[in-house]
Write a structure and sequence with these properties.
Elements lengths: L4 H26 L15 E4 L2 E4 L4 E7 L2 E6 L5 H10 L7 E2 L4 E4 L5 H39 L4 H34 L2
Antiparallel strand pairs: 1-2, 3-4, 4-6, 5-6
Helix pairs in contact: 1-3, 1-4, 3-4
C-alpha cells in the first residue's frame, strides 16, 4: 500500500512521542532507590553553586565504590557544605558523611515494607507512561480519521493504519512492562 508523506509523518510523530515517554520512564526508574547504590539516585538533587541551582552531577563526580555506597567528590571543594545540605534536605532519607574533600553516602538496607512501597511506585510510573502512550495512539488515530473523512486516505488504508498504530502501541507497552519488571526484580533482590 502506498502511504503518503502526511500519513507517514503522523506515524513517525507518534513513535517519537512514545520514545520520549519511554525515556521519561527510564529517568523516573533511575531515581527509585533499590538498596543498591546508583548515581541516578542523586539526579533530582540540585546544589546552589554561585547563586544558581545546578544538578549535582554537574558540580561533582559521583562514584560507586561499594554496592551500597556513593562517593561524591566536588570539583570545587568550596561547595562541599552546599552539597551536603542539598542531600540532607532531599527526600532520599540518607545522612551524608562529609570527609572534608568528599562526601560519602551509605544507603541503608531496605525493609520489606519499603521494598513493597517502591514496587508500587514503580508500577504507578509504568501505568502513567502507558496512559501517555495510549493518548499518543488516540491522537494519531484522530488525525488519521480526519484524513479519512477528508478523503485523503481510503477506508482500507485507514483500517490497515489503525492496526499498525495498535501494533506500535503494544510494542511500546511491552517495553514499559519489561522496564517495570526489571526494576521490581532489582528492588526485591536482597
Amino acid at each position: 500500500m502506498e502511504i503518503s508523506p502526511e500519513v507517514k509523518q503522523v506515524i513517525d510523530e507518534m513513535k517519537k512521542s512514545m520514545e520520549k515517554s519511554i525515556e521519561v520512564l527510564k529517568d523516573h526508574l533511575a531515581t527509585v532507590k533499590t538498596g543498591r547504590a546508583n548515581p541516578g539516585l542523586l539526579e533530582s538533587i540540585k546544589v546552589e553553586y554561585y547563586g544558581v541551582l545546578t544538578p549535582i552531577n554537574q558540580v561533582a563526580s559521583i562514584t560507586v565504590p561499594e554496592p551500597r555506597m556513593l562517593v561524591i567528590e566536588p570539583w570545587d571543594k568550596n561547595i562541599i557544605k552546599e552539597i551536603e545540605k542539598a542531600i540532607t534536605n532531599s527526600d532520599l532519607g540518607v545522612n551524608p558523611i562529609n570527609e572534608g574533600n568528599l562526601i560519602r553516602i551509605v544507603l541503608p538496607p531496605l525493609t520489606e515494607e519499603r521494598r513493597k512501597e517502591l514496587t508500587k511506585l514503580v508500577k504507578k510510573y509504568g501505568e502513567e507512561i502507558k496512559i501517555a502512550l495510549r493518548n499518543e495512539r488516540r491522537d494519531a488515530l484522530d488525525q488519521l480519521k480526519k484524513m479519512k473523512k477528508e478523503g485523503t486516505i481510503s477506508e482500507d488504508l485507514y483500517n490497515h493504519l489503525e492496526k499498525e498504530v495498535l501494533d506500535i502501541l503494544h510494542s511500546f507497552e511491552k517495553k514499559v512492562d519489561e522496564l517495570v519488571e526489571n526494576k521490581e526484580k532489582e528492588i526485591l533482590t536482597v
